[in-house]
Structures are given as structure tokens and as C-alpha cells.
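Q: Here's a chain of 299 amino acids. Please give me its 3D structure as C-alpha cells.
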Amino acid sequence: MAKFGDHPSIPDALENLLSDLTVSTVFMKADCPPRVKRGHITELEVVELEMEAFSSSAIEEISQGLEITLEQNSDTRSDCFVEIDRHGCKVMQIGDLRVTISWPPFSDGWEMIVVRPVAQPDLDDYNLDENLLKLIADLQNQGTLVSGMPGSGKSTLASAIARWLDGEGAVVKTMESPRDLQLPQRVTQYAPLAEDEHSRGSMELTADILFLARPDFIVYDEVRKTKDFEVFGDCRLAGLGLLGVTHSASALEAIQRMIGRVELGILAQILTTVIHVEKGKIGEVLQLEMAVKAPSGMQ
């Protein structure tokens, strides 16, 4: 379980790049000066650091150091693990750090991207109006999407909602890949489940297990592919409270992403609310409902 602001010892070359607490992302590409994304979520900027470029061997050495860190901590910490390991790419969770490493032939050179949260607001910090707070309090009976562009703070809001519902006594579980939400220890975070050690994991299989676990509420981070929307719809029609996190430029576009992936006639039964996040703040809320009326001209 990743904890905000906490990770085990990592190579000094990387730790030094993270010494500025406003840095949320580190970009390292072989033979290029490193860059960082820093600042408050409302005013993020990408800055190229005035230092020598990392060579391929230097990035590979840092990668090897991170793997040693994983080996030393995987048995004692639940937030240190390899999430994805494929030919040419690896994604690791090391405490509050999500590390993505790629190398040839997948990428044209060695690259490492490190992402960490720089804030952990509670639901009260969003200064929600009374109507929206009542809506969130009833999320256990709804299907909700939190939408936003990459880096807008949508997963941060989803984490805050999950922590609040957990504090209110709901049984909360998550479906994530990678598992990097900042949540209480008792909230179990599930990855895609594989049938055996040689097959690739599937959220469809994960959902099968969660039906048996009988949670009150599930956070699905992230809903992106057609199969994700189908699993989202299946869970909702089974009566589970669900909050999905999806990429979109607006709340309307989040709805459009679901149209065509589920039957239009049951869209309002699956998706009831869309909360759109912009620069860490709730910018728009849309609610869906089904309305039936007699065709025009009929008595």
C-alpha cells in the first residue's frame, strides 16, 4: 500500500532529482539533459535541468539499483513490486514512486520516467457544495466517472473519495494497473488477474473475484479500453457502486467514450454521474437519467 511521501532508499542520482518537493515527474532520456515537471497542480511547468545528460549505461545502472531496492523491500513492504514486465519495458512501484523504464527495441533509447504524488488532499479540501457532497455520499448506489486530462488530479480526487467512503464505513476495493492510489491499508488494491503465471492479467477475471468479495464500492483506475468499459458496465448492472477514472478533455467527452461500448438503452443505468477535474479542482458535474415519453403526435 503506497503511502504519500514515503519510499525506500533509491540510487542517489535519482533521489537528488526528487529533492525538490514540488517535483511530480522526472524525465530521463539517454544522452539528453533530464527534465522535471514541478510546481502546484494549477501551475505546472516542465523545466530542463542544467546538468550533464545521462548516458544509456547510467540509466541502466539506476534501473539495476531500483531492482535491488525492490528485492530488498518486496518481502517487508506491500508498496514495492513490479507491476508490468514486458520485452523492452518495465513498470515498478517503489513506495510512492511509479517508475516506468523502457529500452531498445521497444524505445529508440534508454528512458526512465518517475511519477509521484505531490499532494494528498482530503475530500474536505475540495470545498464541495452541499448538493455535490450529498451526491458523493450516495456513490455506493451509482456508477460514476471521474474524468480529466493526464495530470489533472483525477486519481487524486478518486483516492480522496475512496478514503472518505472507507471512513464512513463502506467496504472499498480497487482495480488498478498500476496500483498507485494513496489509500488506507484496509482498502485492498487488485491488479489484473491472470489464469496462470504465463498469461497476461485481465480485469474481467479480477471483477469475477470481487463479486465474491462483496464490496460496497469499487474504484476502477483506469477505464480506457473497450474491455474496461464492458467490465465497468457489467459491475454496475450487478448492483455494485463503481467509480471509474478515465482520460478525457471534458465531461461530455467522457460520456462519448462510453457510447458505442455499451448499449445506448442502458447507458443511464450504468453511468449516472460524471465529475470532470481540471488542474486539481472539480470543474464540471453532469448527471444522466433515462426519460421516456410518447412520440410526437400521439395522443
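Q: Can you summarize the key feature?
A: The chain has a mean pLDDT of 91.
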